[in-house]
From TrEMBL:
Record-linked Gene3D superfamilies: Prion-inhibition and propagation, HeLo domain (1.20.120.1020)
Lineage per the UniProt record: Eukaryota, Fungi, Dikarya, Ascomycota, Pezizomycotina
PANTHER family in UniProt: HELO DOMAIN-CONTAINING PROTEIN-RELATED (PTHR37542), PRION-INHIBITION AND PROPAGATION HELO DOMAIN-CONTAINING PROTEIN (PTHR37542:SF3)
InterPro entries associated with the record: HeLo_dom, HeLo_sf, Het-s_prion_dom
Sequence ranges assigned to domain Het-s prion-forming in this UniProt record: 219-283
Pfam families attached to this UniProt entry: HeLo (PF14479), HET-s_218-289 (PF11558)
Superkingdom classification of source: Eukaryota
Domain Prion-inhibition and propagation HeLo, residue spans: 6-200
Name under which the protein is recorded: Prion-inhibition and propagation HeLo domain-containing protein
Length: 289
């Protein structure tokens, strides 16, 4: 399929290839073999797709004459953008073939798929929000017939994401419009107004999407206030936690929690089995006191 795709792309516009590339993310499914890492990996995949869709929105890819036809010889940036989209597409296709080999090599392996029920309510909320935003920013591609496929290997997933992030870094450097990227990231999280969802989104964006991570950090500061301490020293089995804490019930049920208090402390020295928290607790005791 990669060779066929390479032939087709020569006659396509930046906009068409962009939409096809964004859509490809939606056909990637993760297997239950990811176990407890499933939610984290799914949200990281969502973050990568969201970042790609943000680029398209920032350059107005679906409404600009510049990107509506194959680029001319004098438009280096547009030609490079096509090369990046091709590389992402080919990368995903390569991982798809590898996943097929994984499945055929040992039919006894667990090849069942993870489902939304395998994520917490908070995770589903973040996933749905990111998916809806990315879909809104793309036009239906329809370049190639696509089918959903499953990825089972966590290491291969990590390598795929790392390569995609490197390509997105270069794509954004090719079109250096940081203020537009930042403004759009703020809009992406405008309706996300509870700390658990923002925290989950920030974890997903870490190492994937610095612009989104910064936007979430700014909103968390406004929404949750701040928790801070001076120098911290611990001895023996003591523990010190700086920050709010949420019980498994709060995270699993997706309960909306907002809090704007400021908690601070000077230097802390903890010893023995002492437990210290600078922050608030939601849904139960965070430490065995």
């Amino acid at each position: 399929m990669a060779e066929v795709f390479g032939v087709i792309t020569g006659a396509l516009s930046v906009a068409a290839l962009f939409n096809n590339c964004v859509e490809c993310f939606e056909y990637i499914q993760l297997g239950r073999s990811f176990g407890r890492d499933y939610q984290t990996c799914q949200l990281r995949l969502d973050a990568a797709r969201l970042r790609l869709s943000r680029w398209g929105e920032a350059v107005n890819v679906n409404h600009s004459d510049r990107f509506a036809a194959p680029p001319g010889d004098d438009d280096r940036e547009a030609a490079m953008a096509i090369a990046y989209f091709e590389e992402i597409q080919h990368l995903i296709q390569g991982v798809q073939r590898s996943a097929k080999r994984y499945q055929l090599a040992d039919p006894s392996r667990n090849t069942s798929l993870a489902t939304p029920e395998d994520m917490t309510a908070v995770g589903n909320r973040v996933h749905n929000c990111a998916t809806e935003t990315a879909r809104h920013r793309q036009k239906k591609a329809g370049i190639l017939k696509k089918m959903s496929w499953a990825l089972y290997d966590g290491k291969e997933f990590g390598q795929m994401i790392t390569t995609i992030v490197a390509l997105l870094d270069e794509l954004e450097q090719l079109f250096p419009i940081a203020p537009a990227y930042s403004r759009l990231a703020d809009l992406e999280i405008a309706k996300v107004d509870d700390e658990p969802s923002l925290a989950a989104l920030q974890r997903a964006a870490e190492g994937i999407d610095p612009t989104l991570s910064d936007a979430v950090a700014r909103k968390l500061l406004l929404l949750t206030g701040s928790n801070s301490a001076g120098a911290i020293e611990t001895e023996d089995d003591s523990e010190v936690q700086v920050g709010n804490w949420y019980s498994d019930q709060v995270m699993a049920q997706g309960l909306s929690v907002t809090d704007s208090t400021t908690n601070s402390s000077g230097d802390i020295t903890a010893a023995g089995r002492s437990r210290v928290q600078i922050g608030n607790r939601f849904g139960g005791s965070s430490m065995a006191l």
